[in-house]
Amino acid sequence: MTFKIFTLLLQAAVSTIGISLVSIAIGFVIAILLSAANLSGKAIYSAPARVFVSFFRGVPLLVQLLLIYTLLPAIGLNVPSIVAAIVGLSLCTAAYQAENLRGGFASVPKGLIEAAEVTGLSPRQTFFRIRVPIALRLTLPALVNEAIMILKSSSLVSVVGIIELTKMAQDLASSTYLPIPIFLSAGLIYLVICSVIALIGRYAERRLARTSI
Amino acid sequence: MLKRHFLKAAVSAALLIGTAFSAHAADDALARIKAAGVMKVGTETAFAPFDFIDAGEHTGLNVDFFAELGKDLGVKIEWVELPWDGVFPALEAGKFDFVAGPATITKARLERFKMTAPIAEATVAILKKAGDTSITKPEDIAGKAVGSGKATSQFAQLQEYSATLPTKVTAREYVSFNDAYADLAAGRIVAVANSLPNIAFVAKQRKGAFEVVTPAFGKKSYFGFIGKKDADSASLVDYVNSEVIKMKKDGRLAKMQEKWFGTTFDTPDEVKEPTF
Predict the structure, then answer these.
(1) What domains can be seen in chain B, in order of their start residue?
(2) Nearest-Cα residue of chain B relative to residue A86
(3) pTM for the complete prediction?
(4) A78 and B54 in contact by Cβ < 8 A?
(5) Which residues, 6 or more positions from B232, have their beta carbon under 8 angstroms from its beta carbon?
């Protein structure tokens, strides 16, 4: 019985990890696009990017998830629970990651960008080969922090019908009447996952530090 | 690496577009379910013995009923599990075809939704801690803290009943009835107001912890399943309703009631005038 409960928690943890990783990855791609829009210096690109960030940073994730789940069908996009969960988490983390990256992009030495232009790199090459790698290196700790935040926020996606670690723990606690060991185990599983993310982040920081700016 | 992320984004985009188009394929809800071979049913899994998770397994009377319905209709049943206060908004948004729940058949709900014939009695009573001598009849809850489920008719009835007492009860709303039972066990509230079949089941499951206080304080009421009121869902609602009546006549419903409640209920074929 105890073994079965633990296996069920681990299975639910797998969906927590899957949803979070996919969302962090999609969110990262969107964040890079948002940064590009911001750095373009053209209001037609940067204004929508700013609105995006202020909306997804200013509305609680729980409300965003419920909106995506129940509002989109009104305009003909009836997305399944898993898509609603991933879209909600991705858009939210994209806004935060873009803000983190903004600091990094601002700290890229001007001289480097000028040098890149002088060597004949196109603006696009300058962005992807010079600015992004440097900004990433500078903001890596903040990005790892954000990944951990999203992993923990993924406990909210049960409101759109996804059974993840927290929901599974609640279901098991109410059917077995053993809330203390079950919530303790769920907490421990979260702690282990977050520690692994932190370790990977530290490893990546050390690797990148070897190739200094 | 980056390629894989784009692939994932492309797949989700394709999913978005796919579901948007498939919604207009057949002519009405029942025809679409038959064509797809899947009926989506929304529910809350914290409503034992109708719908709950037993050591990871989704089980209860709802699961048995819709399994039989799926067999009769020749489709698979796909469950969508949400918190109860999210179930009706999601039904209206078209996230699933029907709601299991079940929900008490009330005037307010009939105005907005279609409800099937009753599957069980829903009259509300009090669950107390075993051996609590301060509560021996329903009116003893006056002035005390009593819990019930958020967005439930049981909670509305508790408040209505509370207004008739000399001192009002402190009515507390819980996300699910399971949370209310947990607080009753922890002593944060002295009673939980819920329908008789539910609290009788909980009292039986946790003998020595909880007791049902009789008689019930609520007006006589019944549980039904819920569908949408629009023309698109009309044939589906009629079908589910005919299944309830069919299973009532051939004894399958009585067998399920016996299995989950340890007793059977004498329910009418239709509730035209709910008591509240």
Answers:
(1) 27-121+222-261 (3.40.190.10), 124-213 (3.40.190.10)
(2) B12
(3) 0.82
(4) no
(5) B28, B29
